[in-house]
From TrEMBL:
Record-linked SUPFAM superfamilies: vWA-like
Protein's UniProt name: DUF58 domain-containing protein
Annotated ranges, domain DUF58: 45-240
Length: 294
């Protein structure tokens, strides 16, 4: 299927639910509880064929008896669209423990996309790239997932986070509520990422944010360096005098805690993930926590 799908990770998460925790496209809290007519397992009724219906569910015996096309309906659980938004700015090339933030993000997105597809949900992908927005609309077919994994593998980070004019297409088209999973290192200069997330949440979508960080990045161990370079702008930041590692770590932790609180207050779920954290463990811990009764 894809090199991004690691058996260890898939085995760890395959039995856990990614269902929306709020009402999303007819879903109630936590599970795919509501029922719709469709191509499920338990027979319910027949209905006349409509253009666009899946031909696999035509009942040929009914056609032979009546010379008319009928779809065999059954009760099935509703499904949702899970749309993955991937930050492809240049800071995602930061590397620790032999892996970049972008590569970690690829594995994370592929694993959650696989899980969504396994549950019968439509999976989509939007890459927020400096050159513009690249979008693969949510669909459920197996062939679509092959394109989904291929697009993930082809992402080439570059530049700064895209401007609002570049991602305005996220707010156009059918007004269907979705579960939006945003993966980012949350490097912003003027609140641009927070503004985007708030707009998405206000549009009625449920938003989950995975904040990918490196442990060394949080510690700020810059001994032996006179300056550090901004990966997105190329700007050099001079390190004048002694660098207080303890103070830097404390400020970083305070920033992350403030960010988490800010997003939760806006109805946006937040989870930080360290590059050094095994992905299978990180996802299982997250999904178990998410699916706990509240």
């Amino acid at each position: 299927m894809s090199r991004l799908l690691q058996p260890k990770t898939l085995l760890a998460i395959k039995d856990l639910s990614l269902a929306a925790k709020t009402v999303v496209a007819g879903f109630m809290s936590g599970i795919h509880a509501s029922r719709l007519k469709g191509a499920g397992q338990e027979f319910s009724q027949y209905r006349s064929y409509q253009p666009g219906d899946d031909l696999r569910w035509l009942d040929w015996k009914m056609y032979a008896r009546s010379d008319r096309y009928y779809i065999r309906e059954s009760e099935m659980e509703t499904s949702i669209s899970v749309h993955f938004l991937v930050d492809a700015s240049n800071s995602m090339l930061h590397e620790e423990a032999g892996i970049t933030k972008m590569e970690y993000t690829r594995y994370l997105t592929a694993s959650l996309g696989y899980l969504a597809h396994l549950q019968g949900d439509a999976a989509g992908l939007s890459v927020l790239h400096h050159a513009g927005l690249q979008t693969l609309l949510p669909r459920r077919e197996a062939q679509h997932m092959a394109r989904f994994y291929y697009q993930l593998e082809q992402i080439q980070p570059g530049g700064a986070f895209i401007t609002p004019t570049a991602y305005r297409n996220l707010f156009t088209g059918p007004h269907t509520r979705q579960l939006l999973v945003f993966i980012t290192d949350y490097y912003e200069r003027n609140g641009e990422i927070t503004t985007l997330l708030q707009t998405l949440a206000h549009s009625g979508h449920e938003v989950l944010v995975f904040h990918v960080i490196g442990e060394e990045e949080c510690k700020g161990n810059f001994r032996g360096y006179d300056a550090v370079e901004d990966l997105e702008t190329g700007e050099l930041v001079m390190l004048e005098g002694g660098h207080n590692i303890d103070g830097y770590t404390k400020n970083t932790n305070e920033y992350i805690n403030t960010l988490r609180t800010t997003l939760l207050n806006k109805g946006i779920h937040y989870r930080s993930l360290f590059l050094q954290e095994p992905l299978d463990k990180a996802l299982r811990d997250f999904l178990n926590q998410r699916n706990k009764p509240r």
